[in-house]
Amino acid sequence: MKTFKSKTTDGRRDHYQELTDTVVAALEAGTAPWRRPWDPDKSAGSATPVNAATGRRYRGVNTLVLGMSSLAFVSGDPRWCSYRQASERGWQVRKGEKGATIYFYKPLEVKDSSAPAGEDVLKIVPLLRIFTVFHASQIDGVPEFITPNAPKPLQKRIEDADLIMKASGVTLRTGGDRAFYSPATDHIQLPPDASFHSPEDWAVTALHELSHASGAAHRLNRDLTGRFGSSAYSREELRAEISSMYVGSEIGIPTAIPNHASYIQSWIKILKEDKREILRAAADAQKIADYILSFHPHYALAQPDQIGAADDRSDGSPADEALAA
Fold first, then answer.
1. Residue 123: enclosing H or E segment and its boundaries?
2. pTM of the entire predicted model
3. How many other β-carbons are positioned within 10 Å of the β-carbon of residue 198?
4. Residue 308: is its pLDDT beyond 50?
5. Domain Polyvalent protein metallopeptidase: where (predicted)?
6. Sign of the alpha-carbon dihedral angle for 63, 65, 69, 71
7. Which terminus of the chain, N or C, has fewer Cβ atoms within 10 Å?
């Protein structure tokens, strides 16, 4: 995974820009970095990255950035951890290994110093800190990875998707040659089952449209007013794309939905215009995925066992180093 080092006007590293540049570079190369076009029959269950030391899952943008690394995909091992976490357990990150950057993002409410005297006015200030983690394949002494559970048969995974669709309560209609969610009528429209190349194609398409349906005012309340080609439309589609990856990785179904080239270009445009958009999109996508998975009793129970970057820090400061000592 190619990384970039951008700097702010005062010479500090611009982590927002670095992340955005990495994602944009992948899109410009013709690859959506959140796609998971694996063979479902060979998938060993959840592909969500986890912390090797704690066993807890990464969330939001960290699921995206760690998923962009080829290390986990090639090895089938989803485990990562910081240098200090490895050392504390007697493991050793090999000298010269390059770590992956993960992010801890949190909006903070602080007092606005520019407010008139006597007025207690709060403003939102974004806090972004970075940490470096290493993949299990870069660490000597780490225990052998054992798949927690035997992979479900593909048909069972399709049934999981069907269960979620039914439990969501969103009306599903069949017919025509298009897949879409209609905010006006609050229903999902899918082509006939026979129109899909495989049952898993039906499942991932249905869940993608459920991502859009989650934005209705009586659900997660996102802006669904954008028309095709608008910035609002592109932002919503980006969120549905990334949430599809989160859900598909958890359930064990592929997440590669063909998109017109104009979609890719629109995502590039909005990301270049706002370097914080990818963090917001990933955070919203995580909320969407949590909402969708809450309709399945098994995955709903698993959700509390998830983390951001905080569990990877070695002390109170960001870990900016890129190479193992």
1. strand 122-135
2. 0.80
3. 12
4. no
5. 160-283
6. negative
7. C
